[in-house]
């Protein structure tokens, strides 16, 4: 009996050891795959020599090569966390585009560029808005300068990279505030900015609910629920609202609010 017990124990120990080794191999493979999929910010900057002069994009404006090039330029402009967030938005936007019948490559490019000016400080962003002639409510510039990075990025990219087109610039401009009338790309970038996998700031329960809605509700409804999430989050925390937020909310309520509302 004692020998049989020893054999069983030995077999169990061997099985445990095999499971541990298998888990380690899987973990190593996952880490290697992650490294292959995404170059680190430091490597991107190193590859670019710290900067890349502007050159008009090739015929494949939204192709993989040009996308990688814009990632390099972005990496030199923003911090590590912001870069990681932007890559997350780009990937999420691509997935949303595939689900909702939009061009995934265009969505990916808009996603990677949406926080192009996010690395600028308060005084820098105000000065940039004035230089670019961004027409915004003075209240935003004075009290909510963090909302300027969308419109300034759109204005700057329009001048520097006109080949990306007005639809991309509009989506970038609107991702901070939303609008009553949103194009499919506007909706995709607005939603992707909130639900991308690296997002840890905000009401995570609400974000998880939005993630679960993807593919189950129409894109316009998904945008409405995302806007409602943002609106509710800000009000519940006594935060300032974009001056036109209430008007946008009322317009969206007439369109989608009475069809189905979502609790956060």
What structural class results from the helix and strand content? mainly alpha
**How many domains in all?**
1
CATH topology name, in short, is Hypothetical protein af1432
| Overall 3D form | globular
GO molecular function: bis(5'-nucleosyl)-tetraphosphatase (symmetrical) activity; metal ion binding; nucleotide binding
Enzyme class: hydrolase
EC number: 3.6.1.41
Catalytic activity: P(1),P(4)-bis(5'-adenosyl) tetraphosphate + H2O = 2 ADP + 2 H(+)
Describe the structure.
- With 264 residues, the chain is mainly α.
- It has one domain: Orthogonal Bundle (Hypothetical protein af1432).
- Helix content is 67%, strand content 0%.
- The chain has helices spanning 2-37, 41-48, 64-75, 80-99, 104-113, 122-132, 138-143, 149-160, 166-174, 184-195, 204-213, 219-236, 245-257.
- The protein is globular, with a radius of gyration of 23 Å.
- The N and C termini lie far apart (61 Å).
- The model is unreliable at 47-54 (pLDDT under 50).
